[in-house]
Design a protein that fits this description.
alpha/beta; Multidrug-efflux Transporter Regulator, Chain: A, Domain 2; Rossmann fold; 5-stranded parallel beta sheet; 9 helices; 8 strands
Length: 190
C-alpha cells in the first residue's frame, strides 16, 4: 500500500487556510509535493509533517497518531515474543503482530500492509526468501521494509540481499540493540 497522500484541500483544512494558499506554498517550494497526471498536487504524510513542524503549525490528531506497523515472522515462538516486547519498549507508536509461518505472514499482509517485516529466512514450508520475492513483486507491498534474520548458516551475501531486496540482515543469536536501531531507522522514528 503506498504512503497516504493529502490533497491541497485536505491540507488547507488542517492549516485553516484556503486551498490557494497551499498551492502557493507548493509553488514557492515551501511544501514539497508532486503532481498527478491530471495536474493535481499531492503531498506525502512525511513531507506534510516536516512542513507543519518547520512553520510551527499545530499537528492535527489524525496526523500525529499514526502508528507504524511491524510484522514479526519467526517459527521460534519465544524469540518472536522477545522481539515484539523489545520493539514495544523501544518505541512508542509501533503496533506489532506475530506470525509463525511465511504463508500466514502473506495472508496477514494481504489484510493489513505493515511498514516493516522482521522475517526469519529459514521457515518451514515457505521460506523467507520466497516471502520476499512475493512481497517485492507486488506494487501494493513493494515498499515494505524487510529485515531478514536467521540462526541457520544461510549463505546470504550482499548479492543475495539485493536480489531479495532485504534492507538488513542479522544472524541469531540476535544483537537486539542493533535490530531495534535498524528497525527505528527503517521506520523513520525516534
Amino acid at each position: 500500500m503506498p504512503e497516504k497522500t493529502f490533497t491541497t484541500y485536505e491540507i488547507a483544512k488542517f492549516c485553516d487556510v484556503y486551498p490557494s494558499s497551499v498551492i502557493n506554498w507548493i509553488n514557492d517550494g515551501k511544501l514539497k509535493a508532486y503532481s498527478t497526471p491530471g495536474g493535481h498536487h499531492r503531498v506525502t504524510r512525511e513531507d506534510l509533517l516536516k512542513f507543519l513542524k518547520q512553520f510551527n503549525i499545530p499537528i492535527p490528531a489524525e496526523l500525529a497518531g499514526q502508528e507504524k506497523r511491524v510484522l514479526i515472522v519467526d517459527d521460534d515462538i519465544e524469540l518472536a515474543r522477545i522481539i515484539e516486547k523489545a520493539l514495544r519498549k523501544h518505541a512508542k507508536d509501533i503496533q506489532t503482530e506475530v506470525c509463525h509461518s511465511g504463508v500466514d505472514a502473506l495472508i496477514r499482509i494481504g489484510q493489513v500492509v505493515p511498514d516493516l517485516v522482521i522475517l526469519d529466512i529459514v521457515l518451514p514450508k515457505m521460506d523467507g526468501c520466497q516471502v520476499c520475492k512475493i512481497l517485492k513483486t507486488r506494487p501494493e507491498t513493494r515498499a515494505i521494509k524487510i529485515i531478514g534474520i536467521s540462526g541457520k548458516s544461510v549463505p546470504l551475501t550482499d548479492k543475495n540481499l539485493s536480489e531479495y531486496q532485504v534492507d538488513a540482515y542479522y544472524r541469531k543469536p540476535l544483537d537486539l540493540a542493533a535490530l531495534l536501531d535498524k528497525s527505528a531507522e527503517l521506520l523513520r522514528i525516534g
